[in-house]
Amino acid sequence: MGRLHFDLDFLRSYVTGVELGSFAQAADRLGRSTSAVSAQLKKLEEQVGAPILRKAGRGMVPTAVGETLLAYARRLLELNDEAASAVRGVDLEGGIRLGMPEDFGERVLTEVLGRFAKAHPRVRIEAQMARNADLLDRLSAGRLDLTLAWDMGRSSPHAEGLGSVPMQWIAAASATAAETPPIWSGGAEPLPLVMFEAPCLMRSAAITALDRAGIPWRIAFSSPSLSGVWSAVAAGLGVTVRTRIGLPASLQTLDAQAHRLPVLSSAHLTLHRADATLSPTSQRLWDIMQHTLLPLLSTRRFDELSTVGKAA
Asked: How far is the C-alpha of 128 from the C-alpha of 223, rounded, in Å?
């Protein structure tokens, strides 16, 4: 049997479709037709010799073989892209000013800076962590080149939506879920909330959901920083609403139904850039940020591009 050589274009279509949760969106992002992506997935399955996608309700999810392939495909593409960046951008230098919400400071920022610095050691990155409104103000004032922000209805001339992350009720990590009593017992006692100072997307989402459900609440602690919110929740002062991204080990997400709390919607994430045309340096950082963030937003469920489901 001859040695198997995977086609990187096929792998990129597969990984992008999984990470976006939609092969139709993957086709659009990669500049291909949906039929071309469908054909690539079919050929990829022929190379593997086993199905990589399976039916799940009205959508498709990776099979066990598909999950294994996904892990290796990400590594292959990352190495390929890193090599391409290194040989093409060996002379890149200068500086980039990057902004992010505090949620992304530990995992995302560390990964983005690590990958970028390895390929472009002569480029200086100035990273700023702040709240949404501050980040967009700095961008419009010319003090940031790129910024990541939660969508609060305020946009910028050059923005790209990345996807969404479910908002979660969050409390101190106490023992096990089975031993944790309901946060709100259903009585008249108001639910204590630990929140960012207003205005805040997730503060508004929590209060709106509680009001609609007829659940009384009170602000037990308010903070201008995420670290302050995390500390107050870990100390048991109340519950908060954020996403799973950046969640400390001292906290846990709650099952809304089990705790008689309303189910929350999702928060949408957007990448904003200062200029319509990016410099080669900024473009490379932009690409790395998207690559790093998409797996965090993935639902791993594919409800679009029925031709892919048929081909797979």
From this structure: 19
CB 113 within 8 A of CB 96: no
Q: How far apart are CA 207 and CA 193, in angstroms?
A: 9
**Structure tokens of 249?**
């080990």
Closest CA to 265 of 218, 304, 208, 190: 208
The token duo for 250 is 């001292």
Position 213 scores a pLDDT of: 92
- Residue whose structure tokens are 């002062």: 237
Pair 100, 138: CB distance under 8 Å = no
Count CA atoms within 13 Å of residue 252 on its CB side. Answer: 13
To the question of pTM greater than 0.85 for the whole model, the response is: no
- Residue 59 has φ and ψ, to the nearest 5°, of -120, -165
Put the strands of the sheet holding 240-242 in their side by side order: 240-242, 168-172, 251-253
What average pLDDT does the structure give for the chain?
83
